[in-house]
Design goal:
By secondary structure, the protein is of the alpha/beta class. It has 16 helices and 15 strands. The strands form 3 sheets. Strands 4-10-9-8-7-5-6 form a 7-stranded mixed sheet, with helices on both faces.
């Protein structure tokens, strides 16, 4: 097990070391910048399979697949070879002004053809944030094309995560993505999360909870005016909001409301896509019928930045017509559909299909959830939830009250730091610990992960 100091422990930093230079020159994402000056970084040096190694050679199970994304594991030689081949042939080109190239054509065809619902076109960006930002622009553009300039409002959910650009962060429903940024933008409406354990009323059944959430959505639409509401954004399973798996009938009821008022449905598959939920897409797992699917992360296993918007004809036809009226679709990114990223994404999807990684996600995910449920009696475990190969454990110190230490997130931070000390990199989302390992993880590796988590729970329980 790793003996590296935890993320909450001050470590001696040698002058001119990688850690010292990181502190001196690097402003980190999702990090307390002043605290980082005190404790410094954990510098990851290399990766192999489900493991990563720091500069001291300590090995960690990467239980978050990086950022929910390294489906095929670290160090895959097929992806490295695919990148090298494309670098030598055509290292860069764009798709502006009627230009194209082989990898982006092949990837567009692959994504449209493998989508679980009828789709028409794929548009390429570089991250999930950019993709969701682009979808919002497309929605506004489309409403204008249809002669519905008042139909610009979109609905997202509390605790949702859709990215961090100005527009996508507004769709996100997490307070720290809004505080001090002057967000969210106007026109972003919010409805409740599907977290039954946390949000159900006393004595409420899952069925009644799902009905209430659908009724709340309908009342919001009616209050705003259905003619002003263009779209509903949602993750099939909420990721950064805490790995929230909705009750069984939730999606049927929500989609019925959207159909009733002719509201577009955007499925954010950035985390769920390419096997994570036990099917190729979360859309399949929950029988969704979206107009748009947004994919990224496991599309290339994050070996290179790429994301895609996959849209049906209903969505894309008015946009194409408007581009003809104006003379162009005035939007795009220099690296959108980058040939090397597209080639790597194609090879990555082939690996997922050829090596049966979706089936492995089902088997290993079952082992993971069974092992986590076996810990349900632990005094720090409030709820275990998950589907496929994605799960979370909600930590508590008072099971009846469903409460943890104050301030919120303290217990999650202690357990997350303890996991790192025990050779596991995970993520605390408040007081929930997430597990989203690479799809290649074996059942024996799952058992190793579970034993380290159980040890950490026992250690933290004694500390507090």
């Amino acid at each position: 097990m790793s003996t590296t100091s935890t993320s909450d422990t001050v470590s001696p930093v040698a002058p001119n070391s990688a850690e010292a230079r990181d502190i001196a020159y690097h402003l980190h994402a999702y990090t307390n910048a002043r605290k980082h000056e005190e404790i410094g970084p954990l510098v990851i040096d290399r990766g192999e399979g489900i493991h990563v190694f720091d500069l001291a050679g300590n090995r960690y199970i990467e239980a978050m697949a990086g950022l929910w994304s390294v489906a095929v594991g670290f160090g895959d030689k097929r992806l490295a070879a695919a990148a090298a081949r494309q670098f030598e042939k055509l290292p860069y080109y764009h798709d502006f002004t009627h230009k194209s190239h082989g990898p982006v054509i092949d990837l567009a065809e692959k994504l449209v053809s493998m989508a679980p619902v009828p789709m028409s076109k794929a548009f390429f960006t570089n991250s999930g944030s950019e993709a969701n930002d682009t979808v919002l622009k497309m929605i506004w553009y489309r409403s204008n094309a249809l002669g519905q300039p008042e139909r610009k409002k979109v609905i997202a959910r509390e605790r949702a995560y859709h990215g961090v650009t100005i527009a996508s962060a507004s769709l996100t429903g997490l307070p720290n993505n809004h505080k001090s940024f002057d967000l969210p933008l106007a026109g972003i409406l919010r409805t409740g999360s599907p977290h039954f354990w946390r949000d159900a009323l006393p004595g409420e059944t899952e069925e009644a909870f799902a009905t209430r959430r659908a009724d709340e959505l309908e009342q919001l639409i009616l209050a705003e005016g259905p003619e002003t509401v263009a779209a509903f954004f949602a993750e099939p399973v909420m990721g950064a909001g805490g790995v929230i798996v909705p009750p069984a009938t939730y999606w049927d009821k929500i989609q019925a409301v959207l159909r009733k008022y002719d509201i577009l449905f955007v499925a954010d598959e950035v985390i769920c896509g390419f096997g994570r939920t036990g099917r190729m897409f979360g859309t399949e797992t929950f029988n969704l019928k979206p107009d748009v699917m947004v994919v990224s992360k496991a599309l290339s296993s994050s070996y290179l930045p790429i994301s895609a918007i996959i849209a049906n004809e209903r969505f894309v036809a008015p946009i194409m017509d408007q581009s003809n009226t104006i003379g162009t679709f005035g939007h795009g990114f220099t690296a959108g559909g980058h040939p090397v990223a597209a080639a790597v994404a194609l090879e990555n999807v082939r690996i997922i299909e050829e090596e049966g990684l979706v089936a492995n996600a089902v088997a290993s995910g079952r082992r993971l959830l069974e092992g986590l449920h076996a810990l349900a009696g632990h005094p720090l475990v409030g709820e275990v939830r998950g589907v496929g190969l994605i799960a979370a454990v909600e930590l508590v110190t008072d099971k009846a009250a469903k409460k943890a230490l104050e301030p919120a997130g303290t217990l999650g931070g202690l357990v997350n730091a303890g996991l790192q000390a025990n050779g596991v990199i995970s993520r605390a989302m408040g007081d929930a610990i997430a597990f989203c390992p690479p799809l290649i993880i074996t059942e024996s590796e799952v058992d190793d992960l579970l034993s380290r988590f159980a040890l950490t729970l026992d250690t933290v329980a004694k500390q507090i």
